[in-house]
Design a protein that fits this description.
This protein is mostly helical. The protein has 7 helices and no strands. It has one domain.
Amino acid sequence: MKWIRFTILLLILTLLNSGNLLNFISLGSSNVRPDLLLIFLLFIGANCESNEAIIASFVIGFAADISGASMGPYMVSFGLFGSAVSQMRKVVLMRRMTHQALAIFVLSVIAGGLAELLGAIKLNTGTANIFSVILGTSVYSAVVGPLIWQLFSLLAGWLNVSDKQYKRQSSR
């Protein structure tokens, strides 16, 4: 992977995630919008070598923490689940859009839920509608995620990310 190009794309995605530009497509009063960094995490985890994907997962989590309210929860959550995705890519294929959407939904519920839980513990705060925000973000990310995945696939050559995810490895 070309790390400078990865960093440039990550910076753009972090600015989009933390800025007001995505508010144009947000839903409801809770400001539910797709999580671009989580979709990028899944794309990198599914398409990179394991050591690159693990490092990138923690870096993407750090970027999510920078754009959030507290430092640490997303780095832990994204790093943990990004590492799991990089190991699962040897078994699970992400070729179809339905598989991508399902993986984005599941990862968003689990990783987003863990990050919000850790953030609530750290900040000693709780919000009444946190479950609706997590579920809404997960559904919204799953709906638009495969389309964003296609954009990332177009940038895969620029990032020097290979399509090794389509070669399933067996234990035989």
